[in-house]
Predict the structure.
Amino acid sequence: MQVNSPKERRILFSVWSPFNTDDPAAIPDSLKILLLKKGPGVHAGTFGNEGSGGQSYLVYPWKAGNTYRFLKHVRPQEHNQTAFTAWFFAPEENKWRLIASFLRPQTHTWLTNPHSFLENFDPEEGNKTRYVLFDHQWVRDEKGTWIALHKAFFTGDNTARKGYRMDYAGGIKGQAFFLQNCGFFSNYTPLDTWWERPMDPKETPPDIDLDHFGK
């Protein structure tokens, strides 16, 4: 989820190429990210300057304070390739929307090492505090078993590690993980710490058939 201008917000989904370059035009054809499909109204292309690969985004006026859901499906394919697919659910529409599905070469894997992050990419906006909650997070293994994510490891980028900015925090609020940064607050959270959220006894696995979802 991004704020791209005072009037535009986006839901972004990108997949990095296994070829190490910041220039998408330099990627050999055999190592390019292939777009398999995209949802209505979704822009798809390439990105660069921080690695490079395939990019897709939906211009959507998401609102701070509302709860949005995301679903990512990762499945290994033939010929040492992996398909990455992302969907987005907005309460304003009450339906799942396909963002895109990409095929990554020289990759044969299921989902590993899921991460969440909070970022300010505009230096002029560093005086504004950002805050996000991550709740009801689940993963499904290759056997079809849903597993609740209840532990998280809090880290920071080089700006935090070198002490250039220390207005960052993370941890538990209620039954959710939270991340916070910018705004020049002082009660920062030590980096490289584990957090475990309490499980809601009413929390149930997603009722989603990933083998047929969105078809």
User: Anything to note?
Assistant: The longest helix spans residues 158-161. The chain is about 0% helix and 45% strand. The first strand starts at residue 2 and ends at 5. The helical segments are 158-161.
